[in-house]
Amino acid sequence: MVSLQEPNVIFSGETCPACGKPTLSQIYIVHVDKITGDETFLFTTSCSTCYFKKASILPLMAGKESGATRNVLHVEELADLDSKIYRAPSATVEVPELGMKVEPSGAGEIFVTNVEGMLSRFKERLEFILKTHQAELSAMKRAGETLDEIDSCLTGKKSFHVILEDPEGFSYILPTRKSSLEKTSITTGETTGKGSDETNS
Ligand SMILES: [Zn+2]
Domain containing 136: what range? Predict the structure, then answer.
């Protein structure tokens, strides 16, 4: 017992990660369970050249607002590391204290994780880059300092913010403590531009 709406196009003509042709598109539909009333976004990213296809599901937050949203999570206690992040492909996630930023991706990856999981993933990537890339000494030193800072964040010694901005309004944060989250609607076109301190893209 489900009802499916007409597909909505999020993007088309993007570069396909599999074949490199500009024929990647992404659509979503809203799936409503008629018994429970639960709503879910079903995203499908597909390429018309090589038939690359990827589907992902994002549970819809009750009372979702339409339009662009900005969520700012204040991580001040260990419990806040358990706050859940639902990030749609259209969103940007940022931890300004760590110079960490994840931009919207053409491959249309969704992640559902908690703050701790997100930091651990970032740490792993940074360690991998340090291991496999020869960098200048100053860059290596900076990366090492960032790793120390991530550890301070993961052990609750350092407070930080997680900023989640979504021009489509799909993404959201479920905070452990209600008071730790600021949620605002933003006008399209006013989202944060590309940061120069970007370390993750
Ligand atoms: Zn392709």
Answer: 69-185
